[in-house]
Amino acid sequence: MYIIGIAGGTGSGKTTVARKIIESLPQGEVALIPQDSYYIEATELSMAARRKINYDHPSAFDWDLLIRQVSDLKAGKAIEQPTYSYLECDRLPETIRVEPREVILIEGILALYSKELRDLMDLKIFVDADPDERLIRVIERDIAERGRTVQMVVDRYLSVLKPMHLEFIEPTKRYADLIIPQGGNNEKAIGIMRTCILHRLHAPHDHFPAGL
Question: 209 lies in a domain?
Fold first, then answer.
């Protein structure tokens, strides 16, 4: 099993990178663990209170559950992955059964934040992009998928996304084994990464350099 963490700011293109990795590998060999699925439950809160939660702060995530489930996958056990609704700002009752696979992708803004989670990873990736490009992607996504207006997105970016990125997300770049600039548009970097993963999966383990 090969566990890969993919971190990066909101709108950096990390989901695109994860998707391209999945598409390049044999079907059934990859399991995707989106960190967003592990936002803390907020069922007891009103909708107004849920919308005030800082979802870019480390405290917004259920780290114990995420680490426990990744550990279970690494041990060969299936998990019941939680699901999350951005419209409801809460977890849903339904779960998704995830079986252990040859490759486990953990993707999220703070995927490299927890040392305990990082220690479970074989490869740590940080997807980088210019702030203005990230803001444009966030505006497009949040209007289309999360029912927000342009002004709502810009206000949230200035008051939450930008300061949280600088305080918590950007510093995790130091833990990355590989930094992919230009986000999901960097086909050369993604191609090199795919090649490394394929070699890691199908070549004898004793032929690998340390850390690959």
Answer: no
Residue in the structure block whose two tokens are 């383990």: 205
The contacts of residue 2 (CB under 8 Å, 6+ apart) are: 102, 103, 104, 122, 123, 197, 200, 201
pLDDT of residue 129: 82
- Residue 212: pLDDT band by 50, 70, 90 thresholds? very low
CA dihedral angle for residue 7, residue 12, residue 14, residue 20, rounded to 10 degrees: -150
44 to 1, 49, 56, 89, 190: CA distances (angstroms): 38, 10, 20, 12, 42
Q: 51-103, pLDDT tens digit by residue?
A: 788 889 999 999 999 999 999 999 999 999 999 988 788 889 999 999 999 99
Task: Give the total number of structural domains in the chain.
Answer: 1
> What are the C-alpha distances in Å from 163 to residues 113, 159, 170, 184?
16, 7, 10, 23
CATH number at residue 92: 3.40.50.300
140: in domain: yes
> How many whole angstroms separate alpha carbon 84 and alpha carbon 95?
9
Place of tokens 């909101």: 10
Structural domain that includes position 170: 2-202
| pLDDT of 208 | 39
